[in-house]
Design a protein that fits this description.
Layout (H helix, E strand, L loop, with lengths): L19 H27 L4 H23 L4 E4 L13 E9 L1 H4 L8 E8 L2 E9 L4 E4 L15 E4 L1 H15 L2 E4 L3 H9 L5 E9 H13 L3 E3 L14 E8 L1 H8 L6
Parallel strand pairs: 1-2, 6-7, 6-8
Antiparallel strand pairs: 2-3, 3-4, 4-5, 8-10, 9-10
Helix pairs in contact: 1-2, 5-6
Bound molecules: magnesium ion.
Length: about 270
Amino acid sequence: MTEPPIPSTPTGPAEGSATSDDHGLAETLARETGEMLVEFRHNGFERMDNPWSLQDDADMAAHRFILERLAHERPDDVVLSEEGHDDRSRIGQRRVWIVDPLDGSNSFSSRGADDWAVHIALTIDGEPVCGAVSMPSVGDVASTAEPPDVPVVDRENPVVVVSRQTMRWHGQSLADALDARIVAFGSAGAKAMAVVRGSADAYFTDGGLYEWDSCAPVAVALAAGLHCSRLDGSTPTYNNAQLFAPGLLICRPEMADPILDLIEIR
Ligand SMILES: [Mg+2]
């Protein structure tokens, strides 16, 4: 009599699908990295560190913290970080974490500014399936572990958040075309969170973004039921060979067409 085959024991998340643990890990990492950065920042201001060295040191400390945690928790997964070397062997891999350890570095090193964030995302086959964005200065974390409910805010004129560069070039034409109030601040994560939390109706940029700038914000915004697209209306994909891509719109679904129709303002 032959022995029955020994069933293989899964040793980690099933390849090709995200688990609730993946969502939870993204949230935990965004929160814990944020807490570490708050302390790092406080100590840097106390010591009167040079702002440039403060943000560089913080970038690297947060990067190392995230890499160590992911190496321990998900040793088989690939990690693409803004602060790391782009190992091109990531291309074609199924599970790739895309992280920005500190988004909005200039604000991080400015006293009183809270428009900086930590981005943690997991992409599977190029789709942003898990994500978390923390805004450590205000103690806020939004993630796909518990997709946020976007509050309905009744206001006379829509609020559109943009980068400072978009504000400089297109702020007035956007305001006129949408009868909107245009607000500019730093960090793609902070701007996406303004839409997720209902203080803005749309985040629009016609500038280029790296994948780590937009991946976690898009994962969270999609899970919250918001519209996310490039300016041609296509849904962003990730873990591409080319990491820099132009334009992003995150908004309430009903704002998408009116804004995409304005693309000629570019
Ligand atoms: Mg960064």
